[in-house]
Amino acid sequence: MGASSSFVLAVLTLHSASAMAGCSAVDLPAAQPSHRRWLQDTNLAARSEATIPVPIVARVPSEGSGSFPASSSRRGGHHPKPKEVARPAATGGSPHRPSPSKSHYLLTSMRWLYLIVLPAAGLLLLAGIACWLLACRKSAVATIGPWKTGLSGQLQKAFVTGVPKLQRSELERACEDFSNIIASYPHYTVYKGTLSSGVEIAVVSTMITSSKEWSEHSESCFRKKIDTLSRMNHKNFINLLGFCEEEEPFTRMMVLEYAPNGTLYESLHAEDFEHIGWRGRMRIIMGLAYCIQHMHELNPPVAHPDLQSSSILLSEDGAAKIVDMSVWHEVISKGKTPTNGELDPHHEQVSAALAGNVYSFGVLLLEIISGKLPDPAHERSLVILALECINNGDRSLVSLLDPTLNDHKEDELAVIGKVIHACIQSDPRNRPSMREITARLREAIGISPVAATPRLSPLWWAELEVLSAAEAG
Hints:
Blueprint (H helix, E strand, L loop, with lengths): L2 H17 L8 H14 L13 E2 L14 E2 L29 H38 L13 H9 L6 H7 L6 E4 L3 E7 L5 E7 L9 H15 L9 E8 L2 E8 L6 H6 L8 H19 L15 E3 L5 E3 L4 H4 L19 H21 L11 H10 L18 H14 L10 H12 L3 H4 L7 H4 L10
Antiparallel strand pairs: 1-2, 3-4, 4-5, 5-7, 6-7, 8-9
Helix pairs in contact: 1-2, 8-10, 8-13, 10-12, 12-13
């Protein structure tokens, strides 16, 4: 028998010993293809017929890699009885056809992972990165056209660096060559401007026209006020949108939100302004309370330097908007650089400044519900009249109520009277905080912060288009 026949006989013997007892050599022709398939499954390398000796079957672990080394020896043509080999159970319960090993399934799964899943995940990741880069590139395009809707490079920069710096030429164009004057005062002028999107703005300019008259003190006040106003960010405050500073021609301007319904002072005391009913006045009171509390709780806290009815503007739907124009008086002062309303929380005067705002708020409440001017120089000032009513036991202040307010609520008026009495205490230490005042008023009036804010006011700064280059100014 040749070497090839000896090898086949040895393999047949292995199969016969482990599978079926009594199987003889006559089964060789039928069994040979099955064993060839089994040998192929075990990844045995083919050897030449001349060099293949008779194999001696080694024990194979029951859980292996799917292949095993075959070593053989030939001793005088004697074929020792092969040892029993542990093989995986055959599929379908047949002992003659071993099933693929666990490693085979693992390799198959890994092959799918490397060929399909990982490339697909990589493509999705690359697509996401590409979309993000495209969005960033679109948002970083150069500014085009004057006062276009959208976010310019300068406006995007404002998200990081604060309030954007604008060019005088752009403000001049928006304000019709600065001919659209809506208010003029000894120290500043207010212009109305309109963007191409239709959004209205207020541009406030100093009356100083020469850099020689603009001292270091003036510049310090101007910049500190910009920093303070940029931190306000409250819907019941006239927020700062941008500023302009140029030397030729000399320019110092601030761009603010525009409130179309004038001041609270005008609405309460001017005959040609629309009358405000009880509910409208309660909404104004709550908007003021929420905004002043917000200012006092900033870090560092901010006290309004001149809180009165002329410093409160009204939005299109009648909501209160506090404005701070004090900087235009401060820049021409000759004394020590003022605080611009911003207070050091560790300074000894912080409590006095905040308590001063509380007192002013109490006076505002009196003016709103009575419709009378709080003239402190008058012999019978509004505060004195209120104290007389309270001392006489009439805490509801009915005798001071505006006679046009036929729809007032007694319970709300009673709470307002108690708050006024607490706010106008002569000793600042006895006055409540704005947080306490706001809580008491909200409990009685029931107007939330959302209801007190302008419903028709867009996000002005999002409409503002900045054209000035980074090096301008």
